[in-house]
Amino acid sequence: MIVETMLRSTPEVSGEVLPGVSKRRDWGTEEKLRILAQASAPGSSPALTCRMHGISSGQFYTWRKQFRTGALTGFVPVSLARDTPALPAPMSVPVEPQLAAHTAGNVEVELPNGIKLRLTGDIDASALRQILAALR
């Protein structure tokens, strides 16, 4: 009884499927690749190619993006580059500070490992060398 009431109260949707040509064109992968190749040919342009084939520029650039990511063909285009020689690793050379026997003032030393040392006042050079050697 409830179902029957619902069916009577629901408005009917009527429609008819007409046979014929769809307004949408279904482009095959080969056709898309041919159009993309034509647009990159010398003397051609994407805009000219789009006009010739009756497609929008948005559709063209979507196909091009799909081609570049491999979604269109299943393969991603690859180009080989010449081998570049590897650069040698930088060598770490210990740096010995050149100090006077007795230095007055402020001294700030930053070691390669990131440690910073700040000393103020009268600084004995041999004591500073011992401190730096201990921090390494």
Task: Identify the notable features of this structure and list them briefly.
13% strand; 136 residues; 5 helices; alpha+beta; two-stranded antiparallel ribbon; 38% helix; single chain
Present the secondary structure layout:
Blueprint: H1 2-9, H2 29-39, H3 46-53, H4 57-69, E1 102-110, E2 116-124, H5 125-135
Antiparallel strand pairs: 1-2
Helix pairs in contact: 2-3, 2-4
Question: Your description of this structure?
Answer:
- There is one protein chain.
- With 136 residues, the protein is of the alpha+beta class.
- Among the domains are: 28-77; 102-135, no CATH class.
- The protein is 38% helix and 13% strand.
- The chain is built from five helices and two strands; from the N terminus they run ααααββα.
- The protein has helices spanning 2-9, 29-39, 46-53, 57-69, 125-135, and strands at residues 102-110, 116-124.
- The chain is elongated, with a radius of gyration of 38 Å.
- The termini are far apart.
**Fraction of residues in helix:** 25-40%
Silhouette: elongated
For the record, give the distance between the C-alpha atoms at the N and C termini, rounded to a whole number: 90 Å
Structural class: alpha+beta
Say what oligomer this is. single chain
Strand order within the widest beta sheet: 1-2
Q: Major sheet, described briefly?
A: 2 strands, antiparallel
Please tell me the overall pLDDT.
Answer: 76
